[in-house]
Structure formats: C-alpha cells, structure tokens
Design goal:
There is one protein chain. Helices cover about 15% and strands about 45% of the residues. The chain contains three helices and nine strands. The longest helix has 10 residues. It has a single domain, classed as Beta Barrel (Hypothetical Protein Pfu-838710-001), CATH 2.40.320. It has about 170 residues and is mainly beta.
Length: about 170
C-alpha cells in the first residue's frame, strides 16, 4: 500500500532560495475533501495526476496517485470545490534530504510551507535554519483546506501570529 509520511513547517526568511535546485509550477483543485479522504487533480508543469489521500491527522497517510491526461485534468478542475490552489514548489537539498518549499500564489499568496517526506514515522531529520514552527497535522495548512479557506481570508491577527511564530 502506498503511504505518504511527511512533516510540514512554516518557512522563515529567504535563506533557502539560493539553495533551491529545481522549480515546479503546480495548480491543483479538490473534487472532494470532506470525510476520511480528499480527491485532488494536479497539474505539475506539463503532467497531471488524480490523487486520493486519506485525511488521517498523523504523519502517515494513504496516498493513491494516477497519471491522467492534462486536458482531462483541466476539465476536472471545473468540478472543484473552492479555488484552484496555485504554487511554485522548490526542491531544496539539506542534510542529505530533499525538502520541498511551496510558495503559494493567488488567494494563498504570502504563505510559504516546507515539507519533507520520510521513510517512516520515526525517521530523525535535521531541520534547516529556515524551517519555522512545525504545522504537521494542522488542518488549516492542508492544501484541501486552503482551497476552501484561502490564506487571503485569514484574519490579520491570525496571519500576524504566524509571522511572530516564524
């Protein structure tokens, strides 16, 4: 069974930018997100996938992903709930691991999140200096939540609290 095991952090500063080795444009939309799973369609540069992901609150989540034609992905996006989540993902190597830094655009502009995929839930990682507070398991930072409650709609106080933590 394919599982995704990841940890997610807010990003502080821009020290990660010169370290980035790859840049990927991503647009994704959620067809379903209530209950125990989310169904997402994603276009990364010129490739598309349909993904079913469990909504478990821990680090380990079932993830089933299937390649689909880009034209079908575009058509499916019209069936979305909420907005299309837009971001640029940067791959940033650190301590032998590939970190993914997502710089959100559109209605989620101003939000930067870093993720690292793990081999198992207990894998130790070395945090880079630009990794801020951990937000793993905090539902408001799931992309499916950002599709229905984008960062632009968050209160000024809520955003300020994040920058104070970072």
């Amino acid at each position: 069974m394919p599982f995704e095991i990841e940890r997610k952090f807010l990003v502080r500063g821009d020290a990660w930018r010169p370290l980035a080795t790859q840049r990927i444009h991503i647009r994704q939309a959620y067809l379903a997100g209530e209950g125990r799973a989310s169904v997402r369609v994603r276009i990364k540069d010129n490739a598309a996938t349909l993904t079913i992901k469990s909504r478990a609150p821990d680090r380990r989540r079932l993830e089933l992903e299937y390649a689909i034609p880009v034209l079908e992905a575009e058509a499916a996006m019209a069936l979305r709930r909420g907005i299309v989540v837009e971001k640029v993902r940067y791959i940033v190597p650190h301590a032998g691991a590939a970190w993914e830094v997502d710089v959100f655009a559109g209605e989620n502009e101003g939000l930067l999140l870093a993720e690292i995929e793990l081999r198992d839930e207990h894998q130790r990682i070395e945090l880079p200096a630009w990794a801020g507070p951990e937000v793993t398991g905090q539902a408001q930072f799931y992309n499916s939540a950002l599709a229905v409650c984008p960062f632009a709609t968050w209160s000024h106080d809520r955003k300020r609290a994040l920058s104070a933590d970072a």
